[in-house]
Amino acid sequence: MLPQTFSIPIFFSGQQINELHYPPVVQQVKKRCRFLLQFSTEVNKATENVLGENHPFQEQQVDASSLGWAMAAVSSRAFRTYNLMGTDNAMMLPLIDLCNHSFQPTARILQDLTLAKTEKFIEVVTEEKLEVGTPISLNYGALSNDVLLMDYGFIVAQNLHDRVELKFDGLLLDAARFAAGLYQSNSVSFSSPAPWQLPILAKLNLVGSNASLQVMLGGPDHVDGRLLAALRVLYAEDPADLQNIDLITLQTWKVATPLGLDIERKVLKTLSALSAVVLNYFPTTIQDDKDVLVKEDSSSTKHLITLFCHEKKRLLVNVMAGLKSRVSSLGKIDNVPQMG
């Protein structure tokens, strides 16, 4: 019942992979391909003298493509289940794995945890009566289009869980500041923060040997809290400005001006310019994508790649619109008459 082929990116051609124009996914695809090539070599070497029933693949050589097929079968069809101890395991569930994904599913998986630890009872149930012919769908989880594409071979348009992943980089932020018209000849480079800024950036885990440099654009607040906090810190000119501000406040979108209106405007304009810089990484426009999507068969790899790029661009445009709205709202705060 398993498909003979899968549409996940490890089976794309080199040109198709590069046409994604999205480094986080491109790098992950290449990493998985390298693993499959290395692992297939190790498997064949370890089994070259194994014969008969002891051979895991009935004495057939297994290449990277075969292992890729197996990995795709598992990544796209396995489910997480839990035992009485709360430990999760991945399981293949025949028939159940035929249910497609939807963020508004018609059914859900129900697991009976009252049975003995060695047994599992899993079923698909609906909350209401379904008409004949209604697709039975499940929610695979709050997954971004990156994960859906990499593991399942499809994406969801207007996915509320999608994000644009970036690497926190001072030079990239300097480029965004320059694009926003905020870079002055006497400006201190964001790639060389002041000594008093470094401890705060370290607490945000954005500097240091074990730093996590992955930050996001998108979502309800439009920007990753750590990236928001970092820019607020980098635009601060005096350590005294940060003395009474805690880390949570700096990362909170709902706190409009923790360091004052001037700094907040600069932060928002830089984030908007950053979104524009990332948008310009894509060589085609949203309209170009729409033209391709109309012409291409929806089941083709070209359609899938184009839709993925289109959704990233649409997300970035929405982020810029949200940031612009926030800047406008700050203007209203600035114009509020002061008492006294």
Question: Topology, please?
Answer:
Blueprint lengths: L13 H5 L4 H25 L16 H14 E5 L5 E5 L7 E2 L6 E5 L8 E5 L11 E2 L6 H8 L11 E4 L2 H10 L18 H6 L10 E4 L7 H11 L11 H5 L9 H19 L6 H10 L5 H34 L6
In brief, what are we looking at here?
Helix content is 43%, strand content 9%.
Describe the 3D structure.
This protein is mainly alpha-helical. Helices cover 43% and strands 9% of the residues. The protein has eleven helices and eight strands. Strands 1-2 form a two-stranded antiparallel ribbon. The chain has a two-stranded parallel sheet with strand order 3-6. Strand 4 and strand 5 (121-125) form a beta hairpin. Helix 7 crosses helix 9 and helix 10 (286-295) packs antiparallel against helix 11 (301-334). The longest helix is centred in the C-terminal third of the chain and has 34 residues, at 301-334. The chain starts with 13 loop residues before the first helix and ends in a 6-residue tail after the last helix.
